[in-house]
Amino acid sequence: MKVDKIENTGQARLFKNPYLEMLTKGHPAIIWGMYIPVLSYLIYCAYDKAELSVSTILLLFFGAILFWTFFEYLAHRYVFHMISDNPRLQRVAYIMHGNHHHYPRDRQRLFMPPVPSLILASLIFGIMYLIMNKYAFAFFPGFMIGYLLYASMHYLIHAIPPPFPFMKPLWRNHHLHHYKDEDLGFGVSNTFWDRIFGTMFDLKKEKEDKRKVAELMFDKQQAGASADQPKRVIIVRKPKEENK
Description:
Layout: H1 18-22, H2 28-48, H3 54-80, H4 87-102, H5 114-132, H6 136-159, H7 168-179, H8 192-197, H9 210-216, H10 220-228
Helix pairs in contact: 2-6, 3-6, 5-6
């Protein structure tokens, strides 16, 4: 999956059908608000229904968050950046992730939209339950919190400079993944697995291109333009007919 040119304005049109196109967009607050009650209830079920101890729940929950970081790396490297000559697979890769490389300033597609997210999450929970039985009630919430933290971190990397100096390598690793080499820097919420598998950028040798970094950051003026500026109405007047 290679993008020839980064577009700094607009967003990709993924489907001709406007209703399907609408389902490809989401807001972070909606996704967090949608999952927190569900995940809280599952943890309650782990304690009350599955009768898991508090220590077991905590171990599974935080273990799942750590497992997510590995899953994130594998998915980003081998699924989101799949290389195939099959046009259908290329389109799937573009819908899932390629459109983000094409339009990195599109803030509406950094979180998986609500409907596809719920479908996929239900499938993942079903698989986990088949494998882990009652322990899935504690493992799945941790896994999903890991996803939400990853997506939030990804959003922040495109929205603001690193808030703390120790986070600078994480920001730079992702920026370089966008504008330097898509075959490196697959970690978004962390750089641990990039270091383990040798896909970490050598940040000491790589110089930061501030112009290219700026192209990856959300355009605040564009985001507030629709709300702050009055709508313009363009009136097209027909030319007067010449007297015959």
